[in-house]
Input
Amino acid sequence: MRQVLADCSASISELKKNPTALLNESAGAPIAILNHNKPAAYLVPAETYEWLMDMLDDQELAKLVEQRVAKKDQAVEVSLDDL
Output
């Protein structure tokens, strides 16, 4: 059985009946949407989703920085005046 990764859960039929009420009841926390008692999807508030996307972008940028720092010895020096 798959683990439910949310404190709040609802069935797909509950979601269909009143999605706004579910969001209000969860108070901003993720909601596991269950199909036959197994997670089918997770419903998160827009602010949470935006925060997650920002965190993923930051993580990708951090990886890029680490890669470039590792290749620092291959860098070419230029002056700001040349740019």
Notes: The mean pLDDT is 93. The two ends are 58 Å apart (CA to CA). The first strand starts at residue 8 and ends at 11.
